[in-house]
Amino acid sequence: MLSRRLVVVLVLAASAACAPEVRTLSYPDGALYEVGAWSGPLRDGFRRNTFPDGTVQREAAYARGEPAGTWSYFAADGTLLVRGAYRAGRREEEWIENHDGGAPKSRGVYRAGERDGLWKHFDRDGRLEFEKEWERGTLLRSRRVTD
Question: Is the dihedral angle over the CA atoms 38, 43, 47, 52 positive or is it negative?
């Protein structure tokens, strides 16, 4: 029974030693700028940045210092500007970018950190303006879309 307790205590101690440390950064006036998790010198876990008024500017995640998971960027009014995902430090899957005000700006997919497939680009009113075809980071063709 004693050895079982010792194992449990050692496992808990090891887990605590490896747990990320939450750190905060502030603007010169003391307002919160960033809260995020660190493992030693590396960013490791969820991270949130805010504008001086406290509105969310960015939500992101890291895994052992590399970008990981879903990242989102917001305008000061809370409008989503960019959302996409990272895997192994590289952009992956669908990325969306919006103009200020929320109208779509671009939509497309990354594979292994490179643009791939059809990317659509929109004007400030959200109308399709360009389509670009990519293959592993190489632009194959681009066409202007007219009404």
Answer: positive
**How far is C-alpha 116 from the chain's CA centre?**
19
Say yes or no to pLDDT of 10 above 50.
no
| CB neighbourhood size of 96 (10 A) | 15
- Check residue 82 and report its DSSP letter: E
β-pairing, 42-50 vs 56-63, is antiparallel
Q: Cβ(143)–Cβ(128) under 8 Å?
A: no
Q: Which string of DSSP letters, residue by residue, matches 103-132?
A: -EEEEEEEETTEEEEEEEEE-TTS-EEEEE
- Token pair, residue 130, equals 């360009």
Please count the residues of the chain. 147
Residue 48 has pLDDT above 90, yes or no: yes
Is residue 85 within 8 A of residue 70, CB to CB? The reply is yes
